[in-house]
Amino acid sequence: MQHDIYIAPSILSADFLHLGDELDSIATADLVHYDVMDGHFTANITYGQFVLGQLKKATDLPVDVHLMVTNPEEAVPLFIEAGADIVNFHWEAQTHAHRLVQQIREAGRQAAITLNPATPVSVLESIIDDLDMVLLMSVNPGYGGQKFIESTYAKTRALRRMCNEHHVNPRIEIDGGVGAGNAEALVAAGADTLVAGSGVFKYADRAAAITELRAAGERGRLVDA
Questions:
Q1: According to the model, what pLDDT value does residue 1 have?
Q2: CATH classification number, 6-224, choose in 3.30.10.20, 3.40.50.720, 3.20.20.70, 3.40.980.10
Q3: Interstrand relation of 171-175 and 133-137 (parallel, antiparallel or unpaired)
Q4: Could you tell me which residues are beta bridge partners of residue 134?
Q5: What contacts 24+ positions apart, CB below 8 Å, involve 114-118?
Q6: Domain limits of the chain?
Q7: pTM, rounded to two decimals
Q8: What is the pLDDT of residues 204-218, one digit of tens each?
């Protein structure tokens, strides 16, 4: 079932000893958020394309691959081959954003760009028409469980205005410190896709947590309307 507000649990917070069961527990979500950290762009190292290939066999949900790597031009083909549905690279790490977006879309995948908290949305002015999604980091990348950065609301509104001015409607995804307490305000500001790690996986009943997040987001849609 497709929803207006997408919930994307981040498996960074999952128990990898029981990953199949963890994926089953979030089956009511809309996306799986797959954080790739390389130890260079971020201090941490997570997992790569081989784990993604196994994960794709264990879930029917689309997988949003968030590449926190210094070499997206080299990494993108590997994750496309492994089955990524959405390929999401950082503006701060790329050299030729337009070419990379076209490469992703020519492979039949959705193309997304991520912005760090300190990167203004204005950098996307010349490429926003070509994007399927924009991810705004609401914490600095590299670690789970960080405190939400409050200026994300204004940044989300600015991005939504840019999209409206260009008459395009890419999904606007927020990642970092997202939970039921701020989902409504984020959607009211213009977001429609919410990444939640501990905001889902810390609960025993993941389906209930996803429902609560989505309901809070839907309330924000009413405010936005």
A1: 55
A2: 3.20.20.70
A3: parallel
A4: 113, 172
A5: 114/66, 114/68, 114/88, 114/89, 114/90, 114/175, 115/90, 115/91, 116/90, 116/91, 116/92, 116/140, 116/141, 117/149, 117/151, 117/152
A6: 6-224
A7: 0.95
A8: 999 999 999 999 999
Question: For 99-116, what is each residue's pLDDT tens digit?
Answer: 999 999 999 999 999 999
For residue 85, indicate whether it is catalytic: no
Angstrom distances, CA of residue 158 to CA of 91, 103, 178, 181, 191: 17, 27, 19, 22, 11
| Confidence at residue 2, expressed as pLDDT on a 0 to 100 scale | 61
Whole-number Å distance between alpha carbons of 85 and 107:
10
Token pair belonging to 181: 């307490």
The order of strands in the sheet holding 171-175 is 6-9, 193-196, 171-175, 133-137, 110-115, 86-90, 63-68, 32-37
Catalytic residue status for 175? yes
Query: What tokens were used for 81?
Result: 């081959």
Please tell me the predicted confidence (pLDDT) of residue 221: 87
Residues of the chain with pLDDT under 50: 225
Q: Rg of the chain over CA atoms, in angstroms?
A: 16
Q: Which of 30, 132, 175, 192 is catalytic?
A: 175
Phi/psi of residue 209, nearest 5 degrees: -65, -40
Q: Give me the catalytic one of 30, 35, 64, 132.
A: 35
